[in-house]
């Protein structure tokens, strides 16, 4: 648990602004599911890809099989949501 208290997490301001802009536009056009998907993608990116060096520096205690499975399931959910948007019937 100490890893979570001592780890610094940084998000570039440009990406945070882009998230705010894209989410606001999606919500203004009543695309709630798209706004949720945008937020999910940014969270997945920030948590695993952008801060990969922080995760690897924390040691083997944080990068175990569960971490990779969680990220893999996150990608599967993302792909299923994208397929759902493509085949959606209005």
Number of domains: 1
Overall spatial form: flat
Low-confidence stretches: none
User: In sequence order, what are the helices and strands, one letter per element?
Assistant: HHHHH
- Measured by DSSP, the beta-strand proportion falls in under 5%
Number of strands: 0
Radius of gyration: 16 Å
Number of helices, where a helix is a run of at least 4 consecutive DSSP H or I residues: 5
Task: Please bin the fraction of helical residues.
Answer: over 70%
How many angstroms does the end-to-end distance come to? Answer: 46 Å
SS class: mainly alpha
The whole-number mean of residue pLDDT values reads 81
Oligomer: single chain
Largest sheet: none
Summarize the topology.
Blueprint: H1 2-6, H2 13-28, H3 32-50, H4 52-57, H5 65-86
Keywords: Membrane, Transmembrane, Transmembrane helix
Transmembrane segments: 12-29, 36-55, 67-87
Offer a few descriptive terms.
membrane; 5 helices; mainly alpha; 90 residues; transmembrane; 0% strand; transmembrane helix; flat
Describe the structure in brief.
This protein is 76% helix and 0% strand. The chain is mainly alpha-helical. The radius of gyration is 16 Å and the shape is flat.
Characterise the protein shown here.
- The chain is an all-alpha fold.
- It has one domain.
- Helices cover 76% and strands 0% of the residues.
- The mean pLDDT is 81.
């Amino acid at each position: 648990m100490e890893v979570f208290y001592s780890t610094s997490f940084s998000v570039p301001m440009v990406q945070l602004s882009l998230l705010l802009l894209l989410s606001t536009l999606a919500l203004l056009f009543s695309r709630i599911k798209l706004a949720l998907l945008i937020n999910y993608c940014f969270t997945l990116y920030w948590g695993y890809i952008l801060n990969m060096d922080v995760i690897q520096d924390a040691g083997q205690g944080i990068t175990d099989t569960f971490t990779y499975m969680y990220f893999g399931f996150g990608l599967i959910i993302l792909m299923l949501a994208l397929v759902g948007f493509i085949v959606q019937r209005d």
